């Protein structure tokens, strides 16, 4: 079995859902006292190839599909605001402990015969299956039970005539086979005991046999019946219908419908039913408890519905995730259609289209790739796993969804295509080069300062320029890793006052206000690690940090490999690959009915923001100077940077770094030229004024050596 790898990971759901207590006051017409309107000019930089889909050409048997980069009517490559909105909203949903609600409720199905002791075999193999005709009358589904016998395909082909043998082997789906033999043809047959199990009968076609029934065929998932022991060999004959009918409960039919709604076979039977071509109904197999139908399917070993739906698994973390009476923070910023008792809410942020800086930006149509991967039925990934004796599945009463799906930042991968994959599942992506840049604007209206801070945090992960968003198509292959920076801002506070600080200071104060809010939220929930140290935030930041390796982020290329891991006991490996080791925050569901009290002085934030912006400016200036400097000159820049921080207010960290830098300067003094020694002397003179014994001692030694 290959090493388990996948290009995606999961940020765990939080048992804390944060609902802003000012939600009822949000309006486009009534200004917040601390509200601000304005415009941000932003720049997007692609750090890998980037494909934001526009015009598409569907795939065919002859050629793979093609997805072209989005362009304006003038032909300029651009990124629609809607693409950026979805990307930013997802980041903010995680960062602000918003609801995990963008999930369609489904009741998934399972067919797993790998372990005779598992839940599937317990419910499906050890209990006898029944057969019947499914009908729909007067708004209700019901079953008319019947008997069934197995019919060997060889005997069926002989009954059809040897001239149809090749066509039968070529037909794989039920629709193709019924087109060959006719819809549910009648057959006279004798029965004999089957060697496959007790109470199972084999049908033997005979012209004058006492029994008559309808031939029922299902799909052929593998090789033809005469290809070996593992090939499927039997079809069925349904006969001896009962007059009494069994009602199919709505919840049973709902589970069946969700499993089969995208099935070609179910679509085939619905067409026959609507066309009035079914005399008895749709042939199905089912399990019952007395007269109560518990499950049904279109094959003898049909898919069994899981005990819990996706929404039920979400509520196992916190039921508040699916309630929408009150908006969460992303709803307040970006808007919501509303649901349940919640009213629609118009967003107060408009993200404009980002245009390529180079209007003639070259877009290349790459080699064919395959983008599809495992589905939510792959429970080692999509269900939160912990080290245990067996995998958690949706059959477990405490099963939880793994969380928010993210594609970790890593180098671009060369796609390996299976020889078995046809053009129908391949696609060519038109993309722009790494380093391509786009510029756009974000306009906002009547945002509270804390809300503007939330938007800013989502743009650059709280000022972490090294982290990456995932944008556009091809993320499983490493495409679409981008960063966003604010170039300028125009701000108009609702008070009408003129800003006393530069826009970077005001925006930094907004960031700090948002961080203060979130820290108060996690503190109220009993989490003492702080907001950005909480489980979901740590996982989000971890996956946004570029990794040098691609090996751990590739898809397994064969479906059998996914199946092997579902049936293995390598649970710890699945936990390491898919699931962040960060804990759910908080460990128990948080009572959202208790309002979070948040009080903070924006004036205080402005004061500290000014110092933080100056600190950041000096750091950026130092980095720019060090980029092309010699090792000795870079060391002097480090000393200057730490000295500036110490002179503003000596922290222990800055003092330690300054002392370390001065000691390294002593060790490299002989390698410095005259100008560097002169610069060091000036820095030593300033550092001598700092009241710190260690620094004063090293400064004295340096002054003596420098003369």
Q: How would you summarize what this structure contains?
A:
The protein is built from 20 helices and 26 strands. By secondary structure, it is α+β, with helices and mostly antiparallel strands.
Commentary on this structure:
- The structure is a single chain.
- By secondary structure, the protein is of the alpha+beta class.
- Helix content is 33%, strand content 20%.
- The strands form six sheets. Strands 7, 8, 9, 10, 11, 12, 13, 14 and 15 form a nine-stranded antiparallel β-sheet that branches. Strands 2, 5, 19, 20, 24, 25 and 26 form a seven-stranded antiparallel β-sheet that branches. A four-stranded mixed β-sheet has the order 3-4-23-21, with no helix packed on it.
- α11 crosses α12.
- The longest helix is centred in the last third of the chain and has 26 residues, at 602-627.
- The termini are far apart.
- The model has no long low-confidence stretch (mean pLDDT 87).
Keywords, please?
single chain; 707 residues; alpha+beta; 9-stranded antiparallel beta sheet; 20 helices; 33% helix
Proportion in helices: 25-40%
Q: What portion of residues belong to β-strands? A: 15-25%
Kindly name the structural category: alpha+beta
**Mean of all residue-level pLDDT scores:** 87
- The total beta strand count reads 26
Low-pLDDT ranges = none
Helix count?
20
Q: How is the main sheet built?
A: 9 strands, antiparallel
Q: State the distance separating the first and last CA atoms.
A: 70 Å
Indicate the overall shape.
Answer: elongated
Rg, Å, rounded: 33 Å
């Amino acid at each position: 079995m290959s090493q388990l790898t996948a290009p995606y990971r999961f940020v765990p759901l939080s048992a804390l859902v944060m609902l802003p207590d000012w939600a009822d006051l949000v309006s486009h017409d009534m200004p917040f006292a601390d509200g601000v309107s304005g415009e941000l000019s932003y720049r997007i930089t692609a750090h890998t190839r980037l494909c934001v889909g526009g015009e598409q050409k569907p795939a065919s048997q002859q050629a793979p599909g093609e997805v072209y980069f989005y362009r304006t009517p003038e032909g300029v490559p651009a990124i629609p605001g809607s693409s950026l909105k979805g990307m930013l909203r997802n980041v903010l949903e995680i960062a602000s402990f918003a609801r995990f609600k963008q999930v369609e409720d489904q009741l998934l199905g399972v067919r797993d015969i790998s372990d005779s002791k598992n839940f599937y075999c317990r419910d499906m193999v050890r209990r006898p299956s029944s057969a019947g005709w499914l009908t729909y009358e007067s708004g209700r589904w019901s079953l008319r039970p019947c008997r069934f016998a197995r019919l060997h395909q060889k005997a069926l082909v002989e009954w059809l005539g040897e001239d149809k043998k090749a066509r039968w082997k070529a037909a794989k789906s039920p629709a193709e086979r019924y087109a060959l033999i006719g819809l549910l043809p009648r057959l006279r047959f004798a029965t004999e005991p089957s060697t496959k199990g007790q109470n199972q009968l084999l049908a033997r076609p005979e012209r004058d046999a006492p029994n008559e029934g309808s031939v029922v065929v299902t799909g052929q998932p593998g090789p033809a019946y005469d290809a070996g022991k593992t090939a499927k060999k039997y079809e069925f004959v349904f006969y001896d219908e009962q007059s009494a009918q069994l009602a199919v409960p709505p919840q049973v039919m709902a589970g069946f419908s969700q499993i089969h709604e995208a099935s070609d076979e179910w679509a085939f039977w619905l067409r026959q039913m609507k066309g009035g071509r079914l005399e008895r109904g749709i042939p199905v197999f089912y399990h019952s408890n007395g007269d109560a139908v518990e499950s049904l399917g279109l094959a003898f070993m049909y898919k069994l519905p899981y005990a819990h739906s996706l929404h039920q698994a979400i509520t196992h973390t916190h039921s508040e995730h699916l309630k929408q009476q009150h908006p969460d923070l992303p709803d307040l910023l970006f808007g919501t259609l509303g649901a349940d008792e919640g009213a629609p809410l118009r967003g107060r942020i408009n993200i404009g289209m980002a245009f390529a800086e180079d209007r003639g930006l070259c877009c290349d149509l790459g080699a064919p790739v395959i983008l599809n991967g495992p589905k939510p039925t792959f429970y080692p990934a999509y269900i939160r796993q912990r080290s245990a004796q067996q995998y958690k599945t949706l059959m477990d009463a405490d099963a939880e969804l793994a969380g928010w799906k993210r594609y970790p930042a890593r180098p671009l991968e060369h796609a390996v295509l299976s020889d078995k994959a046809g053009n129908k599942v391949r696609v060519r992506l038109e993309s722009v080069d790494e380093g391509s840049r786009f510029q756009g604007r974000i306009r906002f209206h009547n945002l509270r300062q804390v809300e503007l801070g939330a938007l800013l945090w989502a743009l650059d992960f709280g000022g972490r320029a090294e982290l990456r968003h995932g944008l556009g198509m091809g993320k499983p292959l490493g495409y679409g890793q981008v960063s966003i920076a604010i170039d300028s801002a125009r701000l108009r506070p609702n008070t009408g006052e003129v800003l006393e600080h530069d826009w970077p200071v005001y925006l930094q104060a907004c960031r700090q206000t948002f961080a203060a809010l979130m820290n108060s939220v996690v503190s109220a929930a009993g989490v003492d690690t702080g907001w950005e140290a909480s489980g979901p935030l740590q996982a989000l930041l971890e996956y946004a940090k570029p990794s040098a390796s691609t090996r751990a982020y590739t898809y397994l290329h064969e479906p059998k490999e996914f199946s092997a891991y579902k049936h293995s006991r390598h649970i710890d490996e699945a936990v390491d690959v898919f699931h962040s080791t960060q804990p759910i925050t908080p460990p128990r569901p948080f009572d959202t009915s208790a309002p979070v009290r948040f009080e903070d002085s924006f004036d205080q934030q402005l004061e500290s923001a000014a110092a933080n912006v100056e600190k950041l400016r000096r750091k950026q200036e130092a980095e720019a100077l060090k980029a092309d400097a010699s090792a000795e000159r870079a060391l002097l820049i480090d000393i200057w940077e730490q000295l500036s921080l110490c002179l503003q207010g000596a922290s222990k960290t800055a003092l330690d770094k300054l002392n370390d830098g001065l000691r390294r300067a002593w060790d490299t003094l002989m390698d410095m030229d005259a100008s560097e020694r002169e610069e060091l002397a000036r820095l030593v003179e300033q550092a001598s004024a700092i009241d710190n014994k260690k620094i004063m001692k090293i400064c004295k030694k340096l002054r003596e050596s420098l003369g």
